[in-house]
Amino acid sequence: MKAIPTWAALVLALIVGSMMAIQSRVNGELANRLDDPFVGTALVFILAVLLILIALVAWRPGREGIARLAQARRSHTIPWWMLGGGLVGGMYVLSQSLVVTTLGVALFSVASVGGQTLGGAIMDRTRIVPGGPFVLTPARAIGAGLAILAVVVSQSASLNMDVPLWMLFLPIAVGLAQGWQQAVNARVRMEARSSFTTTLLNATTGLLLLVPAATIKLLTVGMPAEFPREWWLYTGGLLGAVFIGIAPIVVHATGALMFTLIAITGQLGTALLLDLLRADAQPLPVTTIASVVLAFLAVVVGSLRKRPPRLHR
After folding, report:
1. pTM
2. Residue 183 CB contacts under 8 Å (≥ 6 apart), including other chains
3. What does the radius of gyration of the chain's CA atoms come to, in whole angstroms?
4. Angle, vertex CA 52, rays to CA 51 and CA 57, nearest 5
5. What pLDDT, in 10s, does the model give residues 290-312?
């Protein structure tokens, strides 16, 4: 499939990053209101799958994409493990629900960004990414290093907040896995020739992780006392479905690392704004602001070259 123009890919990457930050706030707030991150996460995914299935009835290219993907599996063009990107999406949304209300959107985003940057750099050295492997240019290596430094700076503040260590490392680990998710999703889209198919596959696969976890929680603790009435609290799954559909298009055009670095701009800028607009907003620590600045600098340096040259093997 032909890649989209670079300028369009950059705009879409910015949109994806902003949506990731908004999703973090929405899912974290829903989990906090329900006092149950497992049920809240499963609920938003179920709603997203239902909406996608309804759209599938009217969207013929999506149905054709499913047929092409099934044929690719039968012919072993794409291995089975590349269909599991939705498991990472489920873990990412669950991690939002578990830690965002404690860490804040900005700190969570910076931590996950460090993992995403390292994951994107690793994936660009493989043939998983369409058109890969790519050379890790000096600019991209420096950009990745600055992003990781931003994580170190941001987490140094958290160590003084009596935050459990697992809360600090969870978004980093999930962000690292997202580098793999974005790469395999780009391959799935290439085979299906439909981002809609990629979105449906990720949403349904994510349920394989989230529904059992929510079921166990319901059987042991019971239903939440009350479900909030604000409709926007249930849009996290839909936001995730949209950026899962967009991301493979951008990765195909830019490579996994470049997509990650550009998406950081939208993600961290939106995350910082959301934290500042909170009703109970406290002054942001200097380390959080410094980490965001470092992450933005990582984007600028890493983006000095539009697309890395392909390795010849």
Report:
1. 0.71
2. 123, 126, 128, 129, 251, 256
3. 19
4. 100
5. 877 887 787 677 666 545 555 55
